[in-house]
Amino acid sequence: MDTTPDGAAPPEAPATAAEPSSNPPPQAPADPKNVQSTEADTAPKLSPAELKKRKQAEKQAKRAQAKSSVPQTPAQQKGPLAKEGQKQQKDSKNAKADLSKPFPVRRRPSQGNTPVVKEVKVELKKDKQDRGLFFGHLYNQPRQHSMVGASKDVNPAILALGLQYSNYIICGSTARMVAMLLAFKTVIEQYHTPVGTSLARHLTAHHLNPQIDYLRSCRPLSISMGNAIRWLKDLIIKIDPDVPEDEAKRDLQENIDYFIRDRVTLADDIITSATAQKINSGDVIMTYASSSVVEKTLIRAHQKGIDFSVIVIDSKPLFEGKQLARKLANHGIRVKYLLITGAAHAIKEASKVFLGAHAMMSNGRLYSRIGTALVAMLASSNGLPVIVLCESVKFTERVALDSIVGNEAAPAEEILSEAERRALLPLKPYLHTSLLPKDDTKDTPAKGNGEVLEWVDNSDNFQMLQLLYDVTPANYINMVITEYGSLPPSSVPVVHRLSTHV
Amino acid sequence: MHPKRKNTLYKCVWRPVIANPLPAFDVVATYRSILASDPELTMPVAAIESLVEAIAHSNVSTVAETLRLLDDMTTILKNSIPNPISLSAGTDLFQRYLITTLNRPASLHMGPSDDFRAIRNHLLSNGRLFVERAKASREKIASFGKHFIRDGATILTNGGSRVVGALLRRAAESSTMRFRVIYVLSSSASSDAREGQQIVADLRAHNVPVATIPDSAVAYSLGKVDMVIVGAEGVVENGGIISRLGTYQLGLLAKSKGKPFYVVSESHKFVRLFPLSQFDLPIEQKVLDFKTSDGEKKGDAREKQGPEDEGVADMNGKVAGSKCSGNRPEDAVDFTPPNLISGIITESGVLTPSAVSEELIKIWF
């Protein structure tokens, strides 16, 4: 989505434009203001069909531009006109051609346009991002929920994976990274170097990047995924051009397997065995949400015959703790499940706190599921040791000072559960009429429970902010257990250096 | 090591009986006699020295054999004394050193054709070099640490740490500094107290005014104190220290009064251990002993794992020889967390507590 804000330039970015993906992190967008405005109207809330149309329109525009057959009037770049133009694109190809050009650039006050329903919606979104409550920059990444509009280069395995990401079926930074690497194995297997190029150059830049971009459009990449991608690209680039393609591909696939084995499977094994030793009988372990390595640790300790119990604290947005509590209980561990509202009460019984991580920052801070910081601070103020379990592949050289600059905002429609939507439905009669969806709305999924979201979307003074992560300051963390041993959080950069350069 | 390894593996095949290498060699006795013979020696160094002796007395001829011998000896040593924390710092370090050198024979300037015995001899001489260096480190620490003492300062210290003693002595010898010392001395006749009295007498002979106070007077005297210097039995991974019982409360009090709290310790006392709390130490201490009048014990889970040890044996070579009961609180140790420590003065420089883990990682990876 690199369309320049310059109205005269042809908008040529397809839905999955190739961005430089050498630093894929979900956080820290370069220039929120700029990117945000352009992407705001291109991306969100477009049905697949519309996306397709848009792309066609852009192509047309390019062609038209080449011929320079249609002169541009300043009026056409004005907002309302452009909007109407876009509405007409269904009938007139020519109109589409030039009118789509200014489309990504403009910003309009939302009130003036009420008659044109669909466009109003788009604008409202954009304005909301302007208000944004400091979080506008987190919305610059359009979320993709379907395979439509994906580049044709994207491998079916990646398409499927992307859907699993965006639906939170594959969730958790380790699981996402492993799934991605396995899908990349398929991609590499099916890859053939075109004539006249070398595998080392073509595979990364032209074949892998579209896959990565598609995955990123489904959900921002996790730190571990970024690390794995960097590792893989580094590996590919270093392939000797003389190596036959088959051999190179086999090597790559083998290396991916080794990577998963060394950095995840074995690392988890070391971490769980080290952590299980920290559990004494009689302990009450508190954990927050769900982490695969915490789960393995607790099960392992239980199988060792240590008598302990677990308190699982859980919260919106994903309620991952439910899964963890169920699995632990199925293993015969005594489990208490509480929402975060009860954490202050439950902490009095706990003796240790185990936390999973999305990433460990170089300033020793923990970047993890939103709510983690709360639990860590609570534990710290109660004098409990806070132990983070984290594979070194999740370490990053970046630092985080707060939870605002780098974070992931989940769109409301992904997060609101069916039950919650149903609960909100009876409120409909009390809604202000301007918030009610108009009848000519064409979005089919908006019917039924999805309707609720439209109220949210339509309201101009209400925004649903759903962040997925928060940052826990280092002084609330006593210990980080990695496959390199136990460390204080201040040693994260040392281990990161070690794990990337050895 | 690849060419070599093949070689050694081969040797293993036709000499597999060395599972129990020379039982005649008593590593514990050697360890104790080494400690007793040189009062300047610390536990980790004595442990390393006795391990070197063990290897010298054995006829190991392969890498695997050497490592197994080392393992056996280390286990015997650790089991023989009540508080192996300090000792394990030395044995771990030596083991690590052995593994890295054995895996890289090239670093010893030897070809693959060289006999393993040559490697072994090299190891032995290097091991002795290590011991020499470790002994010299105390003087180096003293020369670093004396700059922390300003003219007119009052220093609070405790225990019978010989490094602290060396540091204060060195400072006293310099003619430009006048300073006073408040020495926390327990009244008991423990080895630690004896060592402490020795240092006090020594300092007084050097014209340094010394006041001795009991543990209970620490908070009282803290107002007169400019800085606290303590020794350590082990420096753990998070930068905290394991030291004589009472050091933790000294640290807490110093922190609450905003007095800088420095630890002096040789870097061979860095130990790969990460205690989360006082009761997370890998030793048995019987400090907490809940009793009622009818003698029946009532305690919580903590009391059971309450540790026992010969805490400060490190500070005094003779203690290791006189096997102590381990029940006495004056021989116990406690854990001072890193947030109470301003700096750790080692022979390789002055570290912040968080740098300890970095140093340890450097050694281990």
TrEMBL record, chain A:
What are the alphabetically sorted keywords of the record?
A: Cytoplasm, Initiation factor, Protein biosynthesis, Transferase
Organism of derivation: Amniculicola lignicola CBS 123094
Localization terms from the record: Cytoplasm, Cytosol
Subunit text: Component of the translation initiation factor 2B (eIF2B) complex which is a heterodecamer of two sets of five different subunits: alpha, beta, gamma, delta and epsilon. Subunits alpha, beta and delta comprise a regulatory subcomplex and subunits epsilon and gamma comprise a catalytic subcomplex. Within the complex, the hexameric regulatory complex resides at the center, with the two heterodimeric catalytic subcomplexes bound on opposite sides.
Which positions make up the signal peptide?
none
One cellular component (GO) term of this entry: cytosol
Q: Taxonomic lineage per UniProt?
A: Eukaryota, Fungi, Dikarya, Ascomycota, Pezizomycotina
What does the similarity note say?
Answer: Belongs to the eIF-2B alpha/beta/delta subunits family.
Residue span of region Disordered:
1-114
Which GO terms of the molecular function aspect are on file? Answer: transferase activity; translation initiation factor activity
What the entry lists under PANTHER family is as follows:
TRANSLATION INITIATION FACTOR EIF-2B, TRANSLATION INITIATION FACTOR EIF-2B SUBUNIT DELTA
Please give the chief subcellular localization of this protein. cytoplasm
Q: Where is the composition biased (Basic and acidic residues)?
A: 84-99
What is the recorded name of this protein?
Translation initiation factor eIF2B subunit delta
UniProtKB/TrEMBL annotation, chain B:
Q: Where in the cell is it found?
A: Cytoplasm, Cytosol
For this protein, the record's InterPro entries field holds: eIF2B_alpha/beta/delta, elF-2B_alpha_N, IF-2B-related, IF_2B-like_C, NagB/RpiA_transferase-like
Keyword list (alphabetical) reads: Cytoplasm, Initiation factor, Protein biosynthesis
Q: GO: which molecular function terms? A: guanyl-nucleotide exchange factor activity; translation initiation factor activity
Give Gene Ontology CC terms: cytosol; eukaryotic translation initiation factor 2B complex
Q: Where is this region: Disordered?
A: 292-330
**Coiled-coil annotated residue ranges, if any:** none
User: Its quaternary structure?
Assistant: Component of the translation initiation factor 2B (eIF2B) complex which is a heterodecamer of two sets of five different subunits: alpha, beta, gamma, delta and epsilon. Subunits alpha, beta and delta comprise a regulatory subcomplex and subunits epsilon and gamma comprise a catalytic subcomplex. Within the complex, the hexameric regulatory complex resides at the center, with the two heterodimeric catalytic subcomplexes bound on opposite sides.
**Recorded family membership:** Belongs to the eIF-2B alpha/beta/delta subunits family.
Q: What is this protein called?
A: Translation initiation factor eIF2B subunit alpha
The organism is Amniculicola lignicola CBS 123094
